[in-house]
Amino acid sequence: MFKVVIDSVILTLCDPETPIALMQSADNEEVRNWITFHTGAPIVSAADAHFAVGAWTEMMPLKQFRQGTPEFPDRSATLIIECEKLEQSGAFLRGPGIKETNRFSLPNLEAFQRNSELFPLGVDFLFCAGSQVAGLPRTTKVSEV
C-alpha cells in the first residue's frame, strides 16, 4: 500500500467523479482494490486522469496528463508524487501562497519552469514523503537563484 500521507491525500481528494491514474510503481491489485473500496474513483489512463500517483520519473513527459484548456484551465491533472524525503533546499520558489521566497528540492527544475510557463494551463503537484505533503501549483515560479 501507499505511505500513510498518500492514502490520506487520496481519501481527501478522490471520489467516484475524480478519475485517477496509477503509474507503474503504484499500480497493483491491492492498491486498485483499496482505491475502489474507499473512494470509488475510476482508474484510468494518464491522459484521462484528474489525479495521478507514482514516482517522478513515471510522470515524464508532463504533457501525457490533462493540461486544461483556455476555456477551462482547472480541468488539468494533479500529480501525487511519492518521494523519499522533502527538503527546503535547491530551487527558489515564488508565487501565490509564498510570502517572499522559499526553497524546495525539485527533481527536475526545467520541467517545473516549462510547466509554469504554460499558466493558466499546466499540471499541479503534490509531493509526499513520510508524513509530509508539499503542494506546488502551476502558478509557482521556480528558479535556480
Question: What does this protein structure show overall?
Answer:
The structure is a single chain. This protein has one domain: Bacterial phosphonate metabolism protein PhnH (Rossmann fold). It contains three helices and eight strands, in the order H-E-H-E-E-E-E-H-E-E-E. Strands 1-2-3-6-7 form a five-stranded mixed beta sheet, covered by helices on one side. A three-stranded antiparallel beta sheet has the order 5-4-8. The protein is an alpha/beta fold.
What attributes does this structure have?
single chain; 145 residues; alpha/beta; Rossmann fold; five-stranded mixed β-sheet; three-stranded antiparallel β-sheet
Fold blueprint:
Layout: H1 4-13, E1 20-22, H2 29-38, E2 51-54, E3 78-82, E4 91-94, E5 102-104, H3 109-117, E6 124-129, E7 132-136, E8 141-143
How would you concisely characterize the structure shown here?
The chain is an alpha/beta fold and 145 residues long. The protein has helices at 4-13, 29-38, 109-117; strands spanning 20-22, 51-54, 78-82, 91-94, 102-104, 124-129, 132-136, 141-143. Strands 1-2-3-6-7 form a 5-stranded mixed beta sheet, with helices on one face. Strands 5-4-8 form a 3-stranded antiparallel beta sheet.
